[in-house]
Amino acid sequence: MRSGCAPSTCNAADGRLLPWVALAIGLAAIGHFFWEAAQLPLYTLWRTGTPGEIEVRGPSVFREYWRRPEATEAAFRDGWFRTGDIAVVEKGSYRILGRSSVDILKTGGYKVSALEVEEAIGEHPAVREVAVVGLPDPEWGERIGAAVVLAPGEALTLEELRRWAGDRLAPYKLPTRLLALEGLPRNAMGKVTKPDVVRLFTDLHLRRHRQDRGRLQGRSDRAPDAPGGSKPTKAPPGSEGPDEGEA
């Protein structure tokens, strides 16, 4: 079980809330009246097993963004600060699933924690670093893409990774795209910038699409007409090898 918190809201050693901080998970789905009814200095509110956004309130929680009223209005709801972190309560403890914007992936009707997938893939002996992102897909909503930095001298295919990770993750959590990089894109603070990772996947897909079109056009230009004037037909799906890094 993994928990997390800000120093102003809980004890970083064990993840327990400080006595003057209230925490709610999925408050919007439960209702606001619980807080007013409780009237306690410490009150935690959640639905076990249901992921939701972590919200906190209390005297140690900041009140507003300096001279940014619009940002303050968006960040607070009836005195509760919306952290943007998604968590789930399991057996009395809460587990951080990730940031709602980039770390909660929606694929085939499932919600998948990118952090959980990263933690599993990071245990592979060939993987030095990993970033998991959602890639837009018209059929699945998002496909799960894993960008990895491999250890020196190591190699890893998507098929090998999926077979290895299948013992650690549910089938719908397995990546269907794999991209090997020399280094993950990071900002000035050293944090991985996942929108840039998504763009790297997109750029790779576009390059391959252009290359495939060029190869098909070259074949058509060079091939003579078949007897009777008919043109050569494209090979049926599956007769060519799979694209590298795709499943």
Q: Could you characterize the architecture of this molecule?
A:
- With 247 residues, the protein is of the alpha+beta class.
- It has two domains: 22-99, Luciferase, Domain 3 (Luciferase, domain 3), CATH 2.30.38; 102-223 and 241-245, GMP Synthetase, Chain A, domain 3, CATH 3.30.300.
- Helices cover 25% and strands 26% of the residues.
- It is built from six helices and eleven strands.
- Strands 1, 2, 3, 4, 5 and 6 form a six-stranded mixed sheet that branches. A three-stranded mixed sheet has the order 9-10-11, with helices on both faces.
- A hairpin with a 3-residue loop joins strand 9 and strand 10 (141-150).
- The longest helix has 29 residues, at 194-222.
- It starts with 21 loop residues before the first strand and ends in a 25-residue tail after the last helix.
- Residues 10-15, 29-43 and 223-244 have low confidence and may be disordered.
Strand count, sense and barrel status of the largest sheet are:
6 strands, mixed
The overall strand count is: 11
Which fold name fills CATH's third level, the topology of the largest domain? GMP Synthetase, Chain A, domain 3
Shape: globular
Q: Strand content of the residues, in percent?
A: 25-35%
Question: CA-to-CA gap between the ends?
Answer: 31 Å
Please indicate the count of domains: 2
What structural class results from the helix and strand content? alpha+beta
CATH class of the largest domain: Alpha Beta
- Identify the CATH architecture of the largest domain: 2-Layer Sandwich
Q: Which regions are unreliable across 5 or more consecutive residues at pLDDT < 50?
A: 10-15, 29-43, 223-244
CATH superfamily of the largest domain: ANL, C-terminal domain
Q: What is the overall number of helices?
A: 6
- What is the average per-residue confidence, as pLDDT, rounded to a whole number? 75
| Radius of gyration over all CA atoms, rounded | 24 Å
- Along the chain, the helix and strand elements come as EHHEEHEEEEEHEEHEH
Helix content bin: 25-40%
